[in-house]
Amino acid sequence: MGTVADHRLFSLEVENFRSLRQVTLPLGPVNVLVGPNGAGKTNVLEVFRFLADIVHTDLVPALDRRGGFERLVFHGGAADPEHIRIGIKGSWSSEPGDQQDEYDLRIAGAPFAREEIFRSSMERHLLQTITVSDIAATTRAEADPTRSPEPLSMEKTNAEEIGIQAASSGLSTLPRLHDERFARITGQVARLLGSLRVFEVDVPAATRPSRAPIRLGEGIANDASNLSTFLVWLSANEPDIWQRLQADAVEVLPQLEAIEFEHAGPTVLGMLRERGLREPTPLSDASYGTIRLLGLLAMLHDPNPPALACVEEIDHGLHPQALELLVERVRDAGERTQFIIATHSPALADRLKPEELIVCERGDDGSSLIPAISRSKVEKIVRASEG
């Protein structure tokens, strides 16, 4: 697929997903959502978690995990909307460049139905609902919109053999097929969304000894539960990155001198060599903020990042002195991946550039206003505050 920088998301469009009644959100390398509780910041992150779940489990399981269509749809206004829509635009075709690709998912309830559209500068695909009894898809050529429907060809014609279910998503199904016209573009967007990381450090899990050896390219777990294993792997396989990560940790943790490791059979546990102490401190005895910081640094220094990483309350548990370095490392990592970050911290927001800041508010009708103010207005506010 090329480098991550070649395959970015340009924008997100959402209709009727929880509080996101009608949201159009431009996406850059670093996107930080700020606003009061209940403004909809978490729901933006949940959209991407939902898309990743569709890739891994399919549409109906992803809906069921959230209580079904009725729980997920926007509840404001006089009546429930009839559909949920999620659209993303970006560049994920095989040949990176200026082209803009699109994926559009529309889900209707009562009776349940779905429509998916995959568009690229190279081809146009409109996918009708796939059922076990009728495996078919319709193609539309950009140059010939009146083109007749063509059957979807594949090596296996038995739907049950390839796992197609009623109301299956193309994201989860078509990449497994053997038809190049359909599998290629859907496979590309499925890999992009499937690699999505919603990162939140589970502090108790991160402090426990790691048992399973990390596999090449596996990276830090989404909850940092393999923190010790990842760090020892990084120290052995990526010494330059390891030295930068350790230097960052020493910079923002004044008592820290070095990160060490204790091996006990198949397990490894991180140890902190701290100034003035005769013995190193195991991660299990370190502070909540220290573990969260180490987990975040591991994520930001991961040599195999996902296409997009979402982090909620990135500043939670951290001293303000750590925020300056954290923002710098997010920008550095933004050259290799994209970030959507939620925060309540004025100290973190003060360190952001106007183009990185997305203000979120809640309207009187219960819907989220994202962005609540334009980038140009944010720039004016920043200039005024600096003046």
Topology:
Blueprint: E1 9-17, E2 20-26, E3 30-34, H1 41-57, H2 59-64, H3 69-72, E4 83-90, E5 101-108, E6 113-119, E7 124-127, E8 138-139, H4 159-162, H5 170-173, H6 180-194, E9 197-199, H7 203-207, H8 227-237, H9 239-252, E10 256-264, E11 267-274, E12 281-282, H10 288-300, E13 308-312, H11 323-333, E14 338-343, H12 346-349, E15 357-359, E16 361-362, E17 368-369, H13 375-386
Parallel strand pairs: 3-14, 3-15, 9-13, 13-14
Antiparallel strand pairs: 1-2, 1-4, 4-5, 5-6, 6-7, 7-8, 10-11, 11-12, 16-17
Helix pairs in contact: 1-6, 8-9
Organism: Nonomuraea insulae
Domain ATPase AAA-type core: 243-350
Protein name: AAA family ATPase
Describe this entry's structure for a reader:
This protein is an alpha+beta fold. Helices cover about 30% and strands about 25% of the residues. The protein is built from 13 helices and 17 strands. Helix 1 (about 40-55) crosses helix 6 (about 180-195). It is globular. The two termini are about 45 Å apart. Residues about 125-165 have low confidence and may be disordered. InterPro entries: AAA_GajA/Old/RecF-like, ATPase_AAA_core, P-loop_NTPase, RecF-like.
Q: Would you tell me the structural class of the helices and strands?
A: alpha+beta
The biggest beta sheet reads: 7 strands, antiparallel
Provide the helix percentage: 25-40%
Radius of gyration: 23 Å
Give me the side-by-side strand order of the main sheet.
Answer: 2-1-4-5-6-7-8
Terminal-residue CA separation: 45 Å
Low-confidence spans: 124-164
Write down the overall mean pLDDT.
82
Query: DSSP helix count?
Result: 13
Strand content: 15-25%
Order of helices and strands: EEEHHHEEEEEHHHEHHHEEEHEHEHEEEH
Question: How many DSSP-defined strands?
Answer: 17
What would the principal axes of the Cα set say about the shape? Answer: globular
